[in-house]
Amino acid sequence: MRRRVTILLFISGCCVVAKAQCPQFEPGLQVGIVAHNSLDEVSGIAASRQNSDVLWVHNDSGGSARVFAMNHQGTHLGIYNLSGAINYDWEDIAIGPGPVNGVDYLYVGDIGDNYDSRTYIRVFRVAEPTVDSQQSPIETTLTGVDTITLVYPDGARNAEALMLDPVTKDIYIISKEDNPSRVYRAPYPQSTTATITMEYKCELPWNKAAGGDISLDGDMVIVKTGERNNNRASIWLRPAGTNLWDAFSGTQCAVELLWEQNGEAVCFDSNGWGYYTTSEELHQPIYYFASVNSNLVITEVMSESADDEAYFNWWELTYTGSSTVDLTDYSWDDSHKRIGQNVFGNVTISPGESIIIGEGWHPIVLEIWKFQWGLLGSDVELYDLSYFSGFSGLSIGDGVFLYDPSGKLVTSVTYPSSQLGFSNEWDIDGIFLGPSVIGENGAYQATPSPDVASPGYAVTCCSCSQVDIYTDGKIDFKDYAVLLNDWLEEGPSLDGDITGNGVVDMLDLKALLFQWPNSCE
């Protein structure tokens, strides 16, 4: 599929340091429904980091002292009773490190106090059990549960947001009814025998905090309300080496929510990029808001041009999401991995667009390059990036590393070798396709030039389900037979047109072979 191509030139200049900006997310999608009939008042959610595709949830006050495991689609996986714990008013759950290094713990907050009358509150901590996202539902009891008893320094209050700092192992609780909501800390190590007086640290810009979480790396904090007519959430960025509460004095980044009955539960995903929400009431939707970073993919690198006239090394960034992304202050480097080495200015990338990032040469050389690749008449933009740092020299056996404004690695590719005059290609799932071949994956030879590549073309296929054109959950000779039946046919809605380019050709065969043999179940 030919895509709109934008060419960015990085020309020698001073080094620019990347600056923080609000993270960007795709529109929310419903990925599942809370299935279990006992989950009618879900007030907390946490994404497992050691168990793939597993979410932990619990009910609000008055129920049994138990947590539920489900997969991201909401399928029930098990009930885990907490030995010795009491559910007076459970309001939130967090996950993160604890006393034993390398072990993740569940932290359950018995922190609700609707009448501001409790003399103390509690957090229950237990090592996270192993859960398989495809397992049959089980019920078991978790032992070794620690009870952490807490009091406020300034009197009892209601709270519904519990967070665990993965950097320091400190526990944070955010009050709800104070206006604005107040942030309290119980520093690590937390005693399990003595009552701990928490420290007041700061305030939020608003009140009614009902849920919160801290990302895997501790670099983002999300807090949301649970009011049906005042449903809001914000993210704050935490610069490396700073205290968590310092983040709340920085920029407040409002993020999208979808309407919920009484949505109190929010958590980051296991990678700390996107976030999940769900609500009280039976069989509520599970919403997921993916980071746009997860849809930015490096799809091609020309690291060793063979053209003597328009020697122009470049790489291609493709965006597969659905929202326009602001790349301002993103940066990239080669295998030196220097954050802020080559920094993007006022640049955006649109859905389905590919951007060519190239070495800065004289504009005449650029025009020759565009002519050779047949891009003179296409929608090509040239940004004046003359104030950026020098283009990192791509070479044989190198790599490309893209960072967001906070310095987090977004995507990268490495390649052990390159053929002179041939680009290396990856599909949009990050699968290495090898050196470009004329007639495959959109590759062609520039004219007049010895270089072979596919600038502006990204291989958009294919997942196992897309390749399963016989629709039996398997990739085998039945799918091959369907493809052969349509071979070289052109037109819409062909079963064998796996890649969706309107013709059944070598692209479809290659997509089939990438998945061969396979089971999609």
What does this structure look like?
With 521 residues, this protein is mainly beta. It folds into 3 domains: 178 residues, Lamin Tail domain (Immunoglobulin-like); 262 residues, Neuraminidase (6 Propeller), CATH 2.120.10; 56 residues, Type 1 dockerin domain. 6% of the residues lie in helices and 35% in strands. The protein is built from 4 helices and 39 strands. Strands 31-1-30-25-24-34-35 form a 7-stranded mixed beta sheet, with no helix packed on it. The chain has a 5-stranded mixed beta sheet with strand order 3-4-5-6-10, with no helix packed on it. A 5-stranded mixed beta sheet has the order 7-8-9-11-15, with no helix packed on it. The radius of gyration is 26 Å and the shape is globular.
Summarize the entry for a quick read:
With 521 residues, the protein is mostly beta strands. Helices cover 6% and strands 35% of the residues. The strands form 10 sheets. The protein has a 7-stranded mixed sheet, with no helix packed on it. The protein has a 5-stranded mixed sheet with strand order 3-4-5-6-10, with no helix packed on it.
Please specify the SSE layout and strand pairing.
Layout: E1 5-10, E2 29-33, E3 42-47, E4 54-59, E5 66-71, E6 76-82, E7 90-97, E8 104-110, E9 121-127, E10 138-142, E11 146-151, E12 159-164, E13 171-175, E14 182-186, E15 196-197, E16 199-203, E17 209-214, E18 220-225, E19 233-237, E20 253-255, E21 265-268, E22 275-278, E23 285-289, E24 296-302, E25 314-319, E26 325-326, E27 331-333, E28 342-343, E29 348-349, E30 354-359, H1 363-372, E31 382-383, E32 399-403, E33 409-414, E34 424-426, E35 432-435, E36 444-445, E37 452-453, H2 464-467, E38 474-475, H3 477-485, H4 506-514, E39 518-519
Parallel strand pairs: 1-30, 1-31, 6-10, 11-15
Antiparallel strand pairs: 2-23, 3-4, 4-5, 5-6, 7-8, 8-9, 9-11, 12-13, 13-14, 14-16, 17-18, 18-19, 19-20, 21-22, 22-23, 24-25, 24-34, 25-30, 26-29, 27-28, 27-32, 32-33, 34-35, 36-37, 38-39
